[in-house]
What we know:
Order of helices and strands: HHHHHEEEEEEEEHHHHHH
Number of strands: 8
Amino acid sequence: MQQPAPVLSPDANSMDDLCAQLSARADQVSDIADWPAESLRLCGASGVYRWFLSEDMGGYGWSATDQIRGYLRLAQSDLNTTFVITQYMGALRRIAASGNQVVIGDWLEQLASGERFGTVGISHLTTSRRHLNRPVLRAEVSGDGYTLDGMSPWVTGAPHADLYVTGATLPDSQQILLAVPSALDGIEAGPGNDLVALSASCTDQVTFRRVHVDHSMLLSGPSEHVLQAAEGVRTGGLQTSTLAIGLARAAVTYLADEASRRDDLQEASTELCREVDALEKRLLHASVGDTDCDASEIRGAANRLALRTTQAALTAAKGSGFVKGHPVGRWCREALFFLVWSCPQPIAQAHLCEFAFGPH
């Protein structure tokens, strides 16, 4: 099997080749039995996972802006695989930033090459399940390490991971972040939830039944807010908006192609393409720290644009777009994902008001 050329910059010809291959496979993944193993393998062989690591860690040292440009291209081609990669890279980057030379030595290169797959289970420390009085995943000091008990509720690629980067809460309410090999006794991963979209991401809960993790696998903590304490990695930010804009780009590209043959679509196509271009420009400005570009405003605008562009593409596709297997129908379902994936409450509330009273 011929190895793909490495993608050394967002503008490389090899990026076009990779995206074409991902796009060709995107409609073949629709449920939990369709884990995108081959697409992930292609990304690994193309060096995608090295975009996010510094050169001294075996990566390409891409800037934050180039990483976003890369994600925009991948999301336009195959949102499901790109979503999986965001969680995979969340694990990779937290390991790289941890300074834990044992975990870095044993795992970093295997993850960066795509030989092994890792993912994060940290939503219970951020937005998911924090309203519960008892932590859903608990840790206690036990001999030369920690014992984990409970579950991590939303873990992408749960049944396919070789390594989980997950957080747990100690009895004194301090938090720790651990690298947990999936082969340890007492771990049970769900097969994946059957979702409205992105079911092939195999996102499900992982249960830990008195799982002993050696102290050498500690990445960060104990601390009150372990995710904030970890250096070099931020939760949230522009990543979700990037994927939403990538999806919108796929929809307007389809719409523009249809408009080239249909005069009735040209006005709508031109306007929506202009909006995607403008929002992408704001996103890239924000990635270099432009304080005039508010991340929350970009997120709300990206959500709206993903919904509007995909529905416009469906309108243009007519009945054929409503038949299962057409990419436009998939894009419409995927756009709904951004209403629930790490959607901050103020943005969710703003969407509710718009749905109830119309845009202002």
